[in-house]
Amino acid sequence: MAGQAIHLKKEILVRIIKAFLSDDFEEQTRLIPYAMRPKGMEVPYRCCIYKERAIIKDRTIAGLGFPIEEDDETVSLGTYAKKALERTEISDKNLTVLQAACKGCATNRIYVTDLCQGCVARPCQTACKFGAISIVNGRSVIDDTKCKKCKMCVNACPYNAIVKISVPCEDSCPVGAIKKDETGFASIDYNKCINCGRCTAACPFGAVHERSQIVDILKAIKSKKKVIAMVAPSIVGQFPGTIYQLKTAIIQAGFDDVYEVAQGADITANTEAKEFVERIEEKGDNFMTTSCCAGYNQLIKKHLPEIKPFVSDTKTPMYYTAEIVKKEHPDAVTVFVSPCVAKRAESYENPNVDYVLNYEELGALFIAKKIQITELEGGKYPVESSKQARNFGVTGGVAESVKASLKDEDAIKPLVINGLNKDSIRQLKKFATCGSCDEGCNLVEVMCCEGGCIGGNATINNQKTAKKQLENLLNESHDIDKI
């Protein structure tokens, strides 16, 4: 997401949290658009202050956990705040589109510009395999009903006269789940959506939003129930300070305890290693794919069922960690602290996970409560996780963990799918059809996000900086065989 849109989202989350902590949540929430855009202020982005306030209202509605698509503009933010307090269930639709912020981008198409020179060679027409290009009055014209947007004509034109008009959210989606509807604005097809979060990061107007569960989590903390945070391995490097100082900060924010999900990653790696031996060496399968990425699991369920026989049955690190927490604290409210949208989808299928808090929301909570992580003492985790498990959130980390668990360097020949896109999905389809994968590999690690979980849509630090901080922790951690 564009930088300024991120700052807006963070400011609104901070204001929602502060409103919750105030004596009048409903009134303080109602005033958020007016506090952010007071009368007489110079308008930074839109045509007028009223448009700015309308968009801030929509962003606040999403921050309270409601869909913008169902908004009645006559309902005040105070009323939405009251409904959030009264809510007992959360929706399984994770994303919402702010139509007031959506610019209604031009149609995604291939277009011939005025730079067309009417070449005698007709390279664009020759390149098109679908008969979509004809010559009218000496110039190329594209028939949109025949065009497959393959861009062969774009590449063939010697004058760069043919361009692709892109809609960022549509282009970013690997499964075609977001498109302009009849109103001209973006709309999400939840039957196709794999919750990868690409559209939230791609939209330059920040018009695609996660529906936050922050109010529900704050309610649980205020109710005096025991609330336990489970932090994903990729959280290392997202905040200043060490992972041990981060635990103290999360407890200061209101949680009763914090578990590393890397603890569950150790279980995942060991279990997948055993399953690999059963499938490859005993049953004779040609390959197995990992199963810890929630976005990939959504892809299998909705778009790629043919690869299911090759997917590991092992559960995710979140699953095993939540199972441990619920056994040790049966009445606790569990909150998974996540780098992405997809883990929200996984949480709905797991009765041991009550809520999901992403890194952006956790950062807003620290700001609202004025918590400075680097000034705190470090806290110990219930179980010290391995070096390999803490590296789960980086591309290649899962395969390396399974390899280390198996203790047979030659048995596993990994192939890493670094980010789901149309090309990598075609590659996986090919593997499923052939029953084997390229270059003699036998373990395919699939990560929905490029770079792994540290590239998730809700991460708040760049990958290079995050990896450097992670490397420092890995140098201090034990190998999996010593845990």
Descriptive overview:
This protein is of the alpha/beta class and 483 residues long. The protein has three domains: 123 residues, no CATH class; 57 residues, Alpha-Beta Plaits (2-Layer Sandwich); 266 residues, Fe-only Hydrogenase (Larger Subunit), Chain L, domain 3. Helices cover 40% and strands 12% of the residues. It is built from 20 helices and 15 strands. It has a four-stranded parallel β-sheet, sandwiched between helices. The protein has a three-stranded parallel β-sheet with strand order 11-15-14. The longest helix is centred in the middle third of the chain and has 21 residues.
Offer a few descriptive terms.
alpha/beta, Alpha-Beta Plaits, Fe-only Hydrogenase (Larger Subunit), Chain L, domain 3, 3 domains, 4-stranded parallel sheet
Quick synopsis:
The chain has 483 residues and is of the alpha/beta class. It contains 20 helices and 15 strands.
